[in-house]
């Protein structure tokens, strides 16, 4: 075993980086409220003092906002400087498609006032209508929309929600993919296979069908883009939830010396699942698959170990560097995002795991390369014999390329579908063109679309995109995002 090669130092502060703005505000003149006078604060005794204080405070806030904006503008780089839209500095997140979406769709839109019997989960009529009109416009064979719209509105009046036809469900799921601004692989959005599992809402049923999804989508390496749609949210009938960010995730174990064995991203989740009774393998490794956690209102959270044959993995080797195998690296074949909510025409499907196939950089540049993930670049560079004494030798870049070559080579050698970032960038622009020819705009988030290595060598780097969000959509709620990392808070009770 070469565990020591993949164990790594723990990084605890990175998740705080998104809070730089509020932290700066914390130093603003509001700081002394409720605190001891630090001595350097001005005294406020007269009305004029109050007025002066308020003016200074307002100016201070403007200055902070201005500086933040300027920094964001600079950070976005020269190619974005012409853009009018405000950008904030956020760390480029772990590339989980659809995760971390900050604004749940429809949340800020006014709802009709009438009929609030089951207000908390009642479907928004406006969203239902918008979706049905889209469905009928893009599927002329479905006939005119009016009759269906009337039936749906009556169903919402009676029950607070409505049941999609199989065709509406499949179309809605495909369009949610088409609308996913962070996904570079949308050219094949029409090919998404939709498993209609809307009658399944119990934990065991969800877990069993998820394992079925892994087998069917894995398809012996010829990966099929697929989504399994489980029970929808309905008034008085809360839908199940999956805690894990993806069906397959690797445990992270904190070692006594503070380093981590496995995926540091899941140290807290692993600890929580162990506390809940999950027993890791006797010989812990760097790639131990975590159990699937399904939470329902009736049963609470339940853990299900993944059957080994449902977990297809690829062992990594390099086409020219024989020692690469000794690192004993591997990754799973199919990335199935499992904590995003699919929203179609106002109906929420919180459990709707979906997958495509990997782009090599997701594994080689991010999962294995990021400092707060497996952090393998220094080890690869060392073994390559590179001069790591100075940044200017570009040892990081050189090692990163070889790590990524190993990923692409190993998946291809194992007959598992994977794509590279150059091919996928060209395909994406084909997709954007096709969408425009169909009279649609293609929402895209530059910071997610541009690959994490060799960005300027790909055509997706050299242009702007429409950013307006569109529905149907995949949405990751903040509490779902937390559950995927921490195993808390529970969705129910
Ligand atoms: N970036 C995620 C990961 O590395 C997967 C996100 C979905 N990726 C995809 N190719 N469909 O596991």
UniProtKB/TrEMBL annotation:
It is an enzyme of class 1 (oxidoreductase). InterPro entries: NOS, NOS_dom_1, NOS_dom_2, NOS_dom_3, NOS_N, NOS_N_sf. Keywords: Heme, Iron, Membrane, Metal-binding, Oxidoreductase, Transmembrane, Transmembrane helix. Signal peptide: none annotated. The chain crosses the membrane at residues 50-77. One of its GO terms (biological process) is nitric oxide biosynthetic process. Its EC number is 1.14.14.47. It comes from the Bacteria. Residues 82-120 are annotated as: Disordered. Residues 182-189 form the Nitric oxide synthase (NOS) domain. GO terms for molecular function: metal ion binding; nitric-oxide synthase activity. This is Nitric-oxide synthase. It comes from Nocardioides ginsengisegetis.
């Amino acid at each position: 075993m070469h565990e020591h090669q993949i164990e790594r130092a723990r990084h605890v502060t990175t998740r705080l980086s998104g809070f730089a703005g509020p932290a700066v505000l914390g130093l603003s003149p509001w700081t002394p409220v409720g605190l001891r006078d630090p001595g350097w604060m001005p005294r406020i005794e007269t009305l004029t003092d109050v007025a002066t204080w308020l003016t200074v405070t307002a100016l201070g806030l403007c200055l902070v906002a201005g500086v933040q904006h300027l920094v964001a503008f600079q950070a976005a780089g020269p190619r974005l400087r012409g853009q009018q839209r405000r950008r904030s500095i956020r760390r480029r997140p772990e590339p989980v498609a659809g995760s971390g979406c900050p604004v749940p769709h429809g949340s800020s839109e006014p709802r009709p006032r009438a009929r609030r019997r089951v207000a908390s989960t009642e479907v928004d009529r406006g969203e239902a209508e918008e979706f049905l009109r889209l469905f009928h416009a893009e599927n002329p064979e479905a006939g005119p929309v009016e009759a269906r719209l009337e039936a749906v509105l009556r169903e919402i009046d009676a029950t607070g929600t409505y049941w999609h036809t199989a065709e509406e469900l499949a179309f809605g799921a495909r369009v949610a993919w088409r609308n996913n601004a962070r996904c570079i692989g949308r050219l094949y959005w029409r090919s998404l296979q939709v498993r209609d599992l809307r009658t399944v809402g119990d934990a065991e049923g969800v877990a069993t069908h998820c394992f079925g999804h892994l087998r069917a989508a894995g398809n012996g390496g010829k990966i099929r883009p697929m989504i399994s749609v489980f029970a929808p949210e309905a008034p008085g009938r809360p839908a199940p939830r999956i805690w894990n960010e993806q069906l397959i995730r690797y445990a992270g174990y904190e070692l006594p010396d503070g380093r981590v064995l496995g995926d540091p991203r899941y140290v807290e989740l692993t600890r929580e699942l162990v506390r809940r009774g999950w027993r890791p393998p006797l010989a812990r490794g760097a790639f131990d698959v975590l159990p699937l956690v399904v939470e329902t209102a009736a049963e609470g959270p339940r853990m299900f170990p993944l059957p080994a044959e449902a977990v297809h993995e690829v062992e990594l080797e390099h086409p020219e560097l024989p020692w690469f195998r000794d690192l004993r690296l591997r990754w799973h074949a199919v990335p199935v995002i499992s904590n995003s909510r699919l929203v179609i025409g106002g109906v929420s499907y919180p459990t709707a795991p979906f997958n495509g196939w990997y782009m090599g950089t997701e594994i080689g540049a991010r999962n294995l390369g990021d400092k707060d993930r497996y952090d393998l670049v220094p080890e690869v560079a060392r073994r390559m014999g590179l001069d790591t004494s100075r940044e200017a030798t570009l040892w990081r870049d050189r090692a990163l390329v070889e790590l990524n070559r190993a990923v692409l080579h190993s998946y291809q050698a194992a007959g598992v579908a994977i794509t590279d970032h150059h091919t996928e960038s060209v395909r994406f622009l084909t997709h954007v063109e096709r969408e425009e020819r169909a009279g649609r705009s293609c929402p895209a988030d530059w910071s997610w679309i541009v690959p994490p290595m060799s960005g300027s060598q790909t055509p997706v780097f050299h242009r702007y995109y429409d950013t307006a969000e569109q529905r149907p959509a995949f949405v990751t709620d903040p509490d779902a995002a937390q559950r995927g990392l921490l195993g808390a808070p529970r969705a129910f009770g």
